[in-house]
Amino acid sequence: PGPGGIAAALLATVAGLAVGLGFGFFAQRSRFCLRAAVIEFWHGQFGEKLAVWLLAFATSVVAVQLFIVAGWLDISTARQIAARGSLSGALLGGLIFGVGMVMTRGCASRLLVLSANGNLRALLSGLIFAVVAQASLGGVLAPLRETMAGWWVVDGGPSRSLLALVGGRPMDGLAFGAVWMVTAGFFAYYSGWGFWKWAGGIGTGLMVALAWAGTYQVMSHSFEPVQIQGLTFSGPSAEWLMRVLAEPGEPWTFGLGLMPGVFLGSLVGALVGRDWKLEGFGGGYTMPRYIIGAILMGFGSMLAGGCAVGAGMTGGAIFAVTAWLTLVGMWIGGGVADRVLDGAHKMAPAPVPAGGETPTAVSAPSAAP
């Protein structure tokens, strides 16, 4: 690229680093996690994990639609709207990803956040996730992904926008997000949240919106072609993997700045909250579960067109049809996996103590990763 292209690439990378720092910090302080929210939902509990996720998601919707109404953002050229999409890939990829995130105890973004907190299980799972994501994008798993994605496709344009399909406008999307934001705030208030839950939930959602607005502003002021994009982790994970393994030469991008930004932001959050702790596997039997889960997440994210944040929150905030289908798949897949893999342990009776007293029921494991 020419000097203008280099400057645009550098600006996009810096924007990714800044957004990543904010996302990593706020996600760490609020314990933002889709997997934990899914488990609370399927257990019939509107607890703090579900409220945090809902507050972040609603904030992202409200902020993105506000940017559109104000003229600061135009998502008509975004890949999730303009390009041809796969409905089969969105739903099946979401289901597969949902199962994987329960097995690894966290989605792609959560694994990166936990890795910065000293969690070696998350670090290993994240590395496997990146390898499988790259293999699904252009490697040995790409033919399978392309076959599954081709079963049910939809053309780009209005047919990929939920708002367009129902005849809605950005103001309608703004109202929708505001309703859910008030709902999340109501439950959060009565849960007795502290400052960091509020700030973390809102801040995480704002970072999703700022990713859209930031890359759009770079595109608008660049003489070189720059793709508008949102906050996602599957593509950048694969990109970083190839950056490490292959010879350098490709220009820097928003995603390449995002990944180290999230790691550093989460590390700062862990140090501020004194949460940093080196953790490994509790036993050998747990390792296959994490490995299989990471494989499923890597393939599912590429099939769906993004991870829980990329396809779910980022695409959901602009009302992409495929993103909402992916979210449905993730919630269903995660709920089924939790029931099948962990349900029996949660219902198992406690062993009878030596004194012969009647045992109390075993409490369910925490939803927190």
Description:
The protein has helices at 3-30, 34-42, 48-70, 79-82, 87-104, 108-116, 120-138, 142-149, 162-165, 170-190, 195-220, 234-245, 254-272, 286-304, 308-317, 321-347; strands at 85-86, 153-154. It is an all-alpha fold and 369 residues long. Strands 1-2 form a two-stranded antiparallel sheet. Helix 3 runs antiparallel to helix 10 (170-190), helix 5 (87-104) packs parallel to helix 16 and helix 7 (120-138) crosses helix 12. The model is unreliable at 347-368 (pLDDT under 50).
Which regions contain 5 or more consecutive residues with pLDDT less than 50? 347-368
- As a whole number of angstroms, the C-alpha radius of gyration is 20 Å
The strand count comes to 2
Pattern of helices and strands: HHHHEHHHHEHHHHHHHH
State the share of residues found in helices, binned by percent.
55-70%
Overall mean pLDDT: 85
Strands in their spatial order, largest beta sheet: 1-2
Distance between the termini: 43 Å
- Shape field: globular
Q: In brief, what are we looking at here?
A:
This protein has helices spanning 3-30, 34-42, 48-70, 79-82, 87-104, 108-116, 120-138, 142-149, 162-165, 170-190, 195-220, 234-245, 254-272, 286-304, 308-317, 321-347, and strands spanning 85-86, 153-154.
Any chance you could write out the topology, listing elements then pairs?
Layout: H1 3-30, H2 34-42, H3 48-70, H4 79-82, E1 85-86, H5 87-104, H6 108-116, H7 120-138, H8 142-149, E2 153-154, H9 162-165, H10 170-190, H11 195-220, H12 234-245, H13 254-272, H14 286-304, H15 308-317, H16 321-347
Antiparallel strand pairs: 1-2
Helix pairs in contact: 1-11, 1-13, 2-3, 2-16, 3-10, 3-11, 3-15, 5-14, 5-16, 6-7, 6-13, 7-8, 7-12, 7-14, 8-14, 11-15, 12-13, 15-16
